[in-house]
Amino acid sequence: MTNVYTTDEIARHDNATDLWIVIHGVVYDVTAFHKEHPGGEEVLLQLAGQDATECFENVGHSPEAINRREIYKIGVLTNAASTDKSETTSTEIKEPTEDEWQYQEPKTEMQSWSAHFIGAVVVIYAVIIFYWYNKL
User: Would you say which domain of life the source belongs to (predicted)?
Assistant: First the structure.
């Protein structure tokens, strides 16, 4: 069973030692995470005890960050269903697509000219070292 919290309950968790935020009607306890937050702990401290949906969406988080927030999920906001219907609420949480579930390494294809350049440099060094050792 999911814990249900009121806005008054969430508002009491508004400091560095007890930090809750709400995103799309879902309540997260980010007390343990706020010092690790890539955007700085100040961002979370400013939103402590409040709805952080707009800020979260405006920044644009990676699929990995979106999935990671589930670790800190502790419940839902009691009146989330009565808020803006265009937003995702506690009863209709958006399921990540297949692309969002799997982390994919960035594709780093070496350009053909750089492969040739590196090959030429290696050959030149090999020739120089060969002649240098033969002179000794």
Answer: Eukaryota
